[in-house]
Here is the input.
Amino acid sequence: MLTFLKVSFVKLVVLVTMIVAACLPASSFAATVQAPASSGVQAALAAPATGTLKVCKTLQAGSPDPGVPFTFSVSGASPSVANFSVSAGSCTFVNLSTPTGSVVVQELPFPDYQVVGIVFTVSLRGTVDVFHGRATAYITTNQVTEVTFINQFANSILKICKNLATGTTVPPGTLFRFSVSSYFQDVLVAAGTCTEIAVPAGQVTVIEKPLANYHVSNIQFLIGTGTVDIPNATAVADMVVHNVTEVAFTNQGKGFIQICKETVDGITGTFGFTSPSFAGTQLITLNKGATEPVCGGLIQVNSGLVQITELAAGDTVLFSARTQPTGYFVKLVGRTVSVVVPTTPNPANVVLVIFKNVRNGYIQICKQTDNGLTGTFYFTSTNLMNIDQSIKVKAGAQQPVCGQVMIVVKGQFTVTETPGTNFHLVGVTVKGGGSLISLVGNTATIRVETGNQAQEALVIFENAPNVGN
Here is the structure.
């Protein structure tokens, strides 16, 4: 009789438990069970009616145990799951009501500790985003999905910045890649931006990995201290506890130029060019009948502003310069041309820098006076170099008295004599390699031809004293 009563009581307890379970929502059974990662609890669990998530926490070798648990959140579960904790060296089980699908497991920020790895025990059971301390876990009915978050002690901030030298460009979406001695993965930085990572205090080595057609031209610590090795694209940062160390790497791109020569009137000869952007002297030879422009070989230079100087070449003068394609020419000062070279890995995108030469012309302004007129006479010009000049005629001087010799290009020039109170202009005569086009008032328009100095144009202004002087 007693045995019968015991059996009946057990059946009654089971029946009541089933009735209560039927009346409660499924979420009431979501629970966590904490156990050491190697405890084998997973194998001891009965096959769950819904999917189960197992989250584990380990520390990288050398990282101290903080003594308090790490906190995680789970999003995407229905109904929702409250935040839960996992201590270093242990795991937490989360029973999910949703039998299939995916959930996002996020490790919440933990002072001085950085997520450096996320691993699923069974491959293809999820995807990971280590940089943001996040994993997407695929949940399957009656199976356990296990994911382990690995942390490293990191108590300082390293800020890596990427700058481009003037004139250097990169294609949209280009990322520069860095390796950091105490960091779990390469750090990617876009031009004009910075990326911050957490690393342990002490010395940390940062190396920029090669990127085709670019090289490191400068490394500078903007915050904190360290040493730099520009040829090897390396910086060693002195990391201080709870401080930020900022280092900027500047890159210079590469481009291609060809120096070309074109002339007027079929000039021949060899022309030389120098530049801080390339070694030695580049030579271009023009032979009679050559199709112009004649170009030298392909030269790879740093992209950006490039200055090229043409060396003096006999009786020729640099008349102009241009680029092909157009749009890269900056300026011409004296015999130096400035151009902007774009960054390109493709030699087909070469910039032609074309120098145009003409033969020299020579001109001298001279003074001839009548009836013993003496004094200082002044001349100006709107398009003749080195004029504003004066010529002084002394008593008994051999005439004509001439000013300095000026080298010019073939063409027309205007010269004006400043009127005086005791003399007037009688006329203007042009001898040698030039001719008088017109004389209006005190202004003469002269044409200068090409030639050597012996063929210079002598422009002689003749003056006489005014009546009564």
Confidence is low (pLDDT under 50) at residues 1-48. The chain is about 5% helix and 55% strand. Residues 2-23 form the longest helix (22 residues).
